[in-house]
Amino acid sequence: MPDSSHEPSKNIDLRKTYDAIVIGSGAAGGMAAYVLTSHGLKVLLLEAGRKLPIEKELKSMEWPYDHPRRGDMPPDRRALTPAEYNIRKPPYAAGTKYNHVYSYVQNWDGPDYSKNIVVDEKDHPYTGTNFAWVRARTFGGKTTIWGRLALRLSDYDFKAASRDGYGENWPISYADIEPYYDRVDDYLGISGIKENLPYLPDSRFQRPNKLTSAEMMLRRSLEKRGRLLTPYRAGVTTDGLKHNKYRSKCFGRGACNRRVGGCDIHAVFDSPTGLIYPAWDTGNLTVRTDATVYEITVDKDTGKASGVSFIDSETRKTYHAKAKAVVLGASTLESARLMLLSKSPQHPNGIGNSSGHVGHNFCEHVMGPEITGIVKDRVGAPRTLDDGRPGGFYLPRFRNLTDRSDFIRGYGFEGEAGMTMFPGHADSTPGFGAAFKKRVRDYAGAYINMGGFGEVLARYENHIDLDPEVKDRWGIPVIRFHIAFGDNERKMCDDMTESAKEMFEEAGIEIVSVKREMLTPGWSIHELGTARMGSDRKTSVVNQFQQSHDVKNLFVVDGSTHVSAANQNPTWTIMALCWRSCDYLADRMQKGEM
Amino acid sequence: MERRELFRVTAGAAVAAKLAGAQAHKFFSDDEFKMTDELTEMIIPADDKSGGARAAQVAAYLDFRLSEAFEPQVRDQWREGLKSIDALSTELNGHAFLAATPEQRIALMTRLSEKNDEFFRVLKEATIRAYYTSKIGIHDDLDYKGNVYQRGDYAGELP
Question: What is the pLDDT of residues A144-186, one digit of tens each?
């Protein structure tokens, strides 16, 4: 349901001092805007990208044959291939003949539907070590196309350092965040079934998505080992939300899972319809798009944040906006970049960076190991509708819970089985002609596939800084990566591959392909940790309320404050933490302590 | 704006093609088109279940995509590839591919398939992509049931 009343204006009031400026309109920025405006604060939300007519971009129900290029992009555009990320060094779009170059996600099905959502690598270069960085500079950020797996962390994660001696504990425990996970569940909607796992707490689930018969078969086989396969815990409202008129319930259409992501009826959570429109409706929110913030400004006397300077992404005119508090939710790496860019006599290493930890302790999820097999009794079986779901299954962590491996921490698998619109197995089906055609038909729906997501340890030396020479299209210094996987990730990936084979074999699945190589850092699009929270201001950037140790009116509310990556997809945790922090911020402001 | 312009050009070309009749291919010569039409139909033929690549107009779709390909090498590869099939046919059978008997054509394609010939792979992948994104491929052949609003109970099981 398109809404015309939520159109940002460039003509905003910059004379007044807002209660808070929120930078970024993704999961974190959207949540900050929602929570702060609900407390009555006057908020200015700045987004570097533009607001797209998103329903017209996504066209979730369009059939391939109704699109002139069957969902492909126009010929002057291309996406980077997986191999390019390793054989070349960034900036990856340097020297290209193409008019537009995008990250690898644009290789997924239907790239024409997301080409305006992800950034053009030509405008947004970066340098340093190999890194597959996916960015969405648009109103709503990456939530407009996210993968939807919405998981909770537990004390196995928050207190992981106590369990295995590596790294730092979080300054919070599950009990602190649990009520906020509950609120996020109820306010945004999540689908799944209760499993009572201490290391992967249940959410307050709406109607679950069903499993296909092959997935059920694997679930039963795993039970013998004490392992679990559960329906994809999707950040999708399957029953609908009475309190939100901008979002429909899910009708199992499946475009979110066939393409990069996105849902034109907004059953999948996205920040604009889920959080920002409700915030806007309070009358307390001002939204400015095309506003690329390049500096958080500082009050000369107090050293506190005074506001932000931004450049209009289209006109390149610069502006300054004033606020009592600045809330940074520009995405993990961009938030660290902006803190490093904001140098002043009071904060010579960048704002909030007296610890020297901004940009450091990067962590994420390693991907690569992946397995595909054939479920024999599905060959030639009657057709079922399997790909209308927002996701297939999740196979939670089973390592280092009670046992000990030759690596620390854990990994989980995402996967699915069943019929899909496009028969991905056709290319590898041998031969041609009538027999080939029949085989493609008979085997469609008989495949099962899963891939691992493993915790990458936070290490101080894995960091980003600002490139001294290279600038982006707007003249802003770009990020330089210094990131590499270590021994623990390699051992973990070996184990992922072997355990995946074991589990498929035990279930009687005929394995047809096994991938074991690690993908380039960044691949999971789960960048975390570059402004971590902690109680020691010498080794962390923000406190448990995501408040800068150095600058009391600066909050960092995105994934950059993760102390460790855990192996769960981070979006739900980012939003729960942000909600908690913004409650705290509003409370302090109302007490006059900002 | 760029996209709109491209679309206008494409739409205009489609109208022009209709007016000019079947002759007006955008990239292929008449013979190349016939050959592509035949080769793709051999890869995915009509059977008692559904129409094949010819019915799904795979050659026309490939003609359009090749006509606008950004890298000239892509077009060269097709032109050279088709030529090489003709050359192989002449070598094996004494005449070009389209003049060969059905048995000779199948023997030639079997040979290319078995030695995993590079252009055969390109041809096969392009045919697969075009056919299984067509109405015939999705609906008639694969009986795909999705991309609909599911209003009742969804398929599948709950643990």
Answer: 999 999 999 999 999 999 999 999 999 999 999 999 999 999 9
Residue A228 structure tokens: 């679990």
- Dihedral over alpha carbons A81, A84, A89, A90 (to 10 degrees): -10
List the beta strands (DSSP E) in B2-155.
none
Put simply, the answer to whether B70 touches A97 (Cβ < 8 Å) is: yes
Higher pLDDT, B4 or B147: B147
Let me know: does B110 contact A430? Beta carbons within 8 Å.
no
User: Which residues of chain B does A383 touch, with a Cβ-Cβ cutoff of 8 Å?
Assistant: 142-145
From the list A122, A52, A477, the residue with the least C-alpha distance to A289 is A52
CA distances from A322 to A303, A318, A326 (A): 14, 14, 9
**Which is it for strands A285-288 and A365-366: parallel, antiparallel or unpaired?**
unpaired
pTM confidence score = 0.95
Predicted complex ipTM exceeds 0.85: yes
- Which residues have a Cβ under 8 Å from the Cβ of A94 and sit 6 or more positions away? A125
The CA–CA distances, whole Å, from B83 to B68, B106, B121 equal: 21, 17, 15
Q: Which of B67, B70, B122, B140 would best serve as a mutation to test chain A binding (most A beta carbons within 10 A)?
A: B70
- The span from the CA of A87 to the CA of A130, in Å, is 9
Residue B7 has pLDDT above 50, yes or no: no
C-beta separation of B86 from B96 below 8 A? yes
